Amino acid sequence: MEYGFVDCHCHISAREFEKDLEDVIQRTEEAGVKTLVAVTVEVGEFDRVLPLQGRYPDLVAPCFGLHPLQEGGQRSVDPRIGLDFTPWCAPSHRDREDQLSVFITQLGVATELQLPVNVHSRSAARVAMETMREQGVGRALLRNFAGKPSVALEGVKAGFLFSFPPAVCRNHQRDNLIKQIPLEHICLETDSPALGLHKHERNEPCHIALCCRHIADVKGLSAQTVQIVSAQNALRPFPKAQTHTRHISL
Is 247 marked within a binding site? Predict the structure, then answer.
């Protein structure tokens, strides 16, 4: 029986990987990762992701998105689809309204093209989920989710998925959240090169086993069960990854 990991949110095209990308990819594959959902961090990164897909067609699955606040004047924030209502990113009500307006537009594009959404929702989990439900979004992954368990369960009812990076191993703040979300709604991510086990060290996709084991420990399950079920879960929002994970089976 063969099975593997699906990293639902990573930045394999980041500049941090340029000097030793082949070594990173080798470690990724040796760790049993079958698919990297490669999320961009800036518009200029689009043209770096596509060649990576061509170079590693059985591994890299591009995922493009733009943050509601784009570079303009002196402001620049990292581009991911979603809402970020933290005070340093959205200090005013107008900032939050501007984000929400662009988020709705992006959801409309995803719905029209029948694409899933990979959503960043920092300090805005409830608003993000309510907006997605209002816009008729069915396939959504809320990545690095840190909202309240009660809010997460609303997302579970809507069929949304939630992913967690190795950073959850640093402390137990999200253990109760992970306990309450059914395994059938959990995916794995690394967000590499960020959100690793150690704050100031570069994270890599090969470290995905860390969050897998942590989730397994919290839920009292085997790591193998979490690995297989989370990979199968990932095929719901990202069905095009099916060819990458064709060896996964129960």
Answer: no
